[in-house]
Design brief:
298 residues, alpha/beta, five-stranded mixed beta sheet
C-alpha cells in the first residue's frame, strides 16, 4: 500500500512538472542559400552531359528547387539546347528573353558519372537454412556537374559552383547492367538534390528554454503560452528598468528578441546575462549557439 502511494505521488509530481515545467520560446529562422541566386525567376536553359543520367539530374533538380517555393525554376532544356558561351550570341539572348523571361539563366555543364565495380565476401542462407559464404558484387557511382549562372540581361556568367552525388547498387552474385544503371541514377539524383539545396534557403525551427528565475516570470506565463512575444518583450523591458542586475531577465529577454528577429538587441542581452553571471553554463552555451546561428563573431 505504501509503495502504491509512493508511486501515485511520483506520478502526480511528474504530471505537475509536465504542466508547469520549463517553458520555451520557439521560432523559425531562415538559413540563406549556400549559392544565392539573385532574383526569383530562374530558367534552366541547357544541360550538357556525357550520359543519359543528365535527364534524371535535371528533373530532380527542378522539382527539388521548386519545392522550396522561395524561387521559381523553369525547365527550358527540353525546348531547345540554348547553350550560352563566354561570348553569347545576341540573337540567342533575345529569343531566350522572349520565350523564357527570367532574372537569371542556369546551365548544367560538365555532367559526368564514374562507376567503379566492387566485390567482397558476403554470406546468405541457402534453401536448407545453412549459411554460405558467397562473393558479392556491386557498383559505386559518383556523378558530378557544374552549375553556371548567367545574367539574363547581359548574357554574362555571374558565377558557378560544383556538385556531386554518390550512389550504389544492391549486392548481388552477378552485376547486371540494370544494377549499374540503378547506381548511376541514384548518384545523379543525389547530385541534383545537392544542387537544389545549394540555391534555395532553408528554414530551421529553434527552441530556447527560458530561465524561470527571472523577476516577474510567473506573471508572464500566460503570454508565453499564448506566444504573445511582442507583449512579452514589452513587459520584460519594463521590468528590466528596476532589475538591471538580473542575469536571468537579460537572458529571457535575449531569447524573446531573437525569436522576434531583433538580432542586435538579442546579442546585447545575451552578453549582459553572461557578464552578470559568468559561471552560469546555460548563458555561456546559449550565447555561443546564438553567435554561431547568427553568423556573429566575437
Amino acid at each position: 500500500m505504501i509503495r502504491r502511494f509512493a508511486f501515485v505521488a511520483l506520478l502526480h509530481a511528474a504530471l505537475c512538472a509536465a504542466a508547469f515545467g520549463a517553458q520555451r520560446v520557439s521560432f523559425v529562422r531562415t538559413i540563406p542559400a549556400v549559392h544565392a541566386i539573385p532574383g526569383e525567376r530562374i530558367a534552366l536553359v541547357y544541360a550538357i552531359g556525357d550520359n543519359d543520367q543528365v535527364r534524371t539530374f535535371v528533373d530532380v533538380f527542378v522539382e527539388r528547387a521548386n519545392r522550396n517555393r522561395a524561387i521559381q525554376l523553369d525547365d527550358a532544356t527540353e525546348r531547345g539546347n540554348h547553350i550560352i558561351g563566354e561570348n553569347p550570341d545576341e540573337l540567342l539572348l533575345r529569343r531566350l528573353r522572349r520565350e523564357h523571361p527570367a532574372d537569371i539563366y542556369l546551365g548544367v555543364n560538365r555532367f559526368t558519372c564514374e562507376t567503379v565495380e566492387r566485390s567482397g565476401q558476403g554470406s546468405s542462407y541457402n534453401v536448407d537454412g545453412v549459411r554460405e559464404k558467397k562473393l558479392q558484387r556491386w557498383a559505386d557511382t559518383t556523378c558530378r556537374a557544374r552549375i553556371d549562372a548567367i545574367d539574363a540581361t547581359t548574357g554574362k556568367h555571374v558565377g558557378s559552383f560544383e556538385v556531386k552525388g554518390e550512389g550504389t547498387s544492391a549486392r548481388t552474385p552477378e552485376l547486371s547492367s540494370e544494377d549499374r544503371k540503378t547506381a548511376a541514377m541514384q548518384a545523379a539524383r543525389y547530385a541534383a538534390i545537392s544542387a537544389a539545396e545549394s540555391i534555395t534557403p532553408r528554414q530551421v525551427r529553434e527552441s530556447i528554454e527560458l530561465d524561470e528565475r527571472a523577476p516577474g516570470f510567473e506573471e508572464a506565463r500566460g503570454l508565453i503560452d499564448a506566444d504573445r512575444l511582442v507583449d512579452l518583450r514589452s513587459r520584460w523591458e519594463l521590468l528590466l528598468r528596476d532589475n538591471r542586475g538580473s542575469a536571468a531577465l537579460h537572458y529571457d529577454l535575449a531569447a524573446v528578441c531573437e525569436a522576434l528577429g531583433d538580432v542586435d538587441t538579442a546579442r546585447q542581452h545575451y552578453e549582459a546575462a553572461q557578464r552578470l553571471s559568468p559561471d552560469e553554463p546555460r548563458y555561456r552555451s546559449e550565447l555561443s549557439t546564438f553567435r554561431r546561428r547568427s553568423g556573429i563573431k566575437k
